[in-house]
Amino acid sequence: MAGVLAADPTLADFGKDPLWITIVKAVMLFLFLALGVMFGVWYERKLISRMQHRYGPNRAGTFGILQSAADAIKMGLKEDIFPRTVDRVLYLLAPVIMVVPAFLAFSIVPFAPIVNLFGVRTPLQLVDLPVAVLFMLAMGAVSVYGVVLAGWSSRSPYALLGGLRSAAQVVSYEIAMGLSFVAVFLFAGTLSTSEIVAAQAQTWYVVLLIPSFLIYVICMFGEAARIPFDLPEGEGELVGGFQTEYSSSLKFALIMMGEYLHTFTASGIAVTLFLGGWRAPFPISLWEGANQGWWPVLWFFIKFVLTFSFVVWVRASLPRVRYDQLMSLGWKVLIPVNLAWILLVAAVRNVMVNDGDKTLGIGLGAVIVIGALAIWMRFATVNQRRKEAKKAQVEAEFEELSNEPAAGGFPVPPLDLPHYRGVSRP
């Protein structure tokens, strides 16, 4: 990768823009996200349709590209229905709580280094903070309140169950997702998104920190409430989840927009923290001007679209997991693996960077990896024995019940066919 250029922004470059430039960047970000939602809906429909050998939207406009605009107009003009027993204030406030934090979370994503915008040299990023990544996590956690309030204010058992699922789901994935960023912080030495991108000038963190990246990708689907972790909706079990009592009106459109914006934010953070941000991929990075001017916007957009395409591909390929499976994955797999990986990264980096002894660092890393594998194999063996014992117990009980004369076809008793057909018994 090309080295750090003079145009790479730092925290010192923010807060110096004229007010009108800040307003222009905020409007540009809003338009990008608002139009991106409409285009993303159309793109997801077309991509899934092609994967299923269908055409998808193809009537409204060229290639059906105006279908999303038609849907948005339809939902904006439909009658706004209020169920009789809802809490009207929270019922109206919940969709707003879902949308606004998603917009704010994307404000820390850098699209390019310092560029010339209407004659003013400014970073192509709305805002950056010393704790920018923590700000993103906080906005993701706040949006969960919108889901919970939407379910509670609807006064519907199905909507309430969807809201409670979201509250439990955020505990399962949010801890693991936060821990997946720790290794990035250790390597970059900062929580600023612009400086994290600058720290990836030589090697992207997807290469150095592949376990952290894989864990984040898994948690990303929980953050966006997308299949296979769209449990708050769960239309197969909950009719429609937390948004059951929201008619197809503007409120429902805001809920869907909030979910898409969280998908965009998760994709943007993945690009920023692990895929080099706006930096050009190899071998394009060998070109001296690849990371200067407005070219980085193109590289960021390509990475962003590919990441979003991966999210769509997973939705079309995997089924929804059960509630207990998500909780088990988060608490029994993702969090322990994350903690072990952070221990390894911290120990190796401290020895190799601070002490300068690479051999000792590699040896220490190997010892930690072997120890973690030994612990994992121990727990896996115990868990396998428990499963086999449980299976043997169930088979024994089944065999015992099957041998009873009255058991018949356990667990479904046999039908008395003559009586079932209306024939009187002898």
UniProtKB/TrEMBL annotation:
<keyword id="KW-0874">Quinone</keyword>
<dbReference type="Pfam" id="PF00146">
    <property type="entry name" value="NADHdh"/>
</dbReference>
<dbReference type="InterPro" id="IPR018086">
    <property type="entry name" value="NADH_UbQ_OxRdtase_su1_CS"/>
</dbReference>
<keyword id="KW-1003">Cell membrane</keyword>
<keyword id="KW-1133">Transmembrane helix</keyword>
<feature type="transmembrane region" description="Helical">
    <location>
        <begin position="203"/>
        <end position="222"/>
    </location>
</feature>
<feature type="transmembrane region" description="Helical">
    <location>
        <begin position="360"/>
        <end position="381"/>
    </location>
</feature>
<comment type="similarity">
    <text>Belongs to the complex I subunit 1 family.</text>
</comment>
<feature type="transmembrane region" description="Helical">
    <location>
        <begin position="171"/>
        <end position="191"/>
    </location>
</feature>
<feature type="transmembrane region" description="Helical">
    <location>
        <begin position="326"/>
        <end position="348"/>
    </location>
</feature>
<comment type="function">
    <text>NDH-1 shuttles electrons from NADH, via FMN and iron-sulfur (Fe-S) centers, to quinones in the respiratory chain. The immediate electron acceptor for the enzyme in this species is believed to be ubiquinone. Couples the redox reaction to proton translocation (for every two electrons transferred, four hydrogen ions are translocated across the cytoplasmic membrane), and thus conserves the redox energy in a proton gradient. This subunit may bind ubiquinone.</text>
</comment>
<keyword id="KW-0560">Oxidoreductase</keyword>
<feature type="transmembrane region" description="Helical">
    <location>
        <begin position="293"/>
        <end position="314"/>
    </location>
</feature>
<keyword id="KW-0520">NAD</keyword>
<feature type="region of interest" description="Disordered">
    <location>
        <begin position="402"/>
        <end position="426"/>
    </location>
</feature>
<feature type="transmembrane region" description="Helical">
    <location>
        <begin position="129"/>
        <end position="150"/>
    </location>
</feature>
<protein>
    <recommendedName>
        <fullName>NADH-quinone oxidoreductase subunit H</fullName>
        <ecNumber>7.1.1.-</ecNumber>
    </recommendedName>
</protein>
<feature type="transmembrane region" description="Helical">
    <location>
        <begin position="20"/>
        <end position="43"/>
    </location>
</feature>
<dbReference type="GO" id="GO:0050136">
    <property type="term" value="F:NADH dehydrogenase (quinone) (non-electrogenic) activity"/>
</dbReference>
<dbReference type="InterPro" id="IPR001694">
    <property type="entry name" value="NADH_UbQ_OxRdtase_su1/FPO"/>
</dbReference>
<feature type="transmembrane region" description="Helical">
    <location>
        <begin position="89"/>
        <end position="109"/>
    </location>
</feature>
<keyword id="KW-0830">Ubiquinone</keyword>
<feature type="transmembrane region" description="Helical">
    <location>
        <begin position="260"/>
        <end position="281"/>
    </location>
</feature>
<keyword id="KW-0472">Membrane</keyword>
<keyword id="KW-1278">Translocase</keyword>
<comment type="subunit">
    <text>NDH-1 is composed of 14 different subunits. Subunits NuoA, H, J, K, L, M, N constitute the membrane sector of the complex.</text>
</comment>
<keyword id="KW-0812">Transmembrane</keyword>
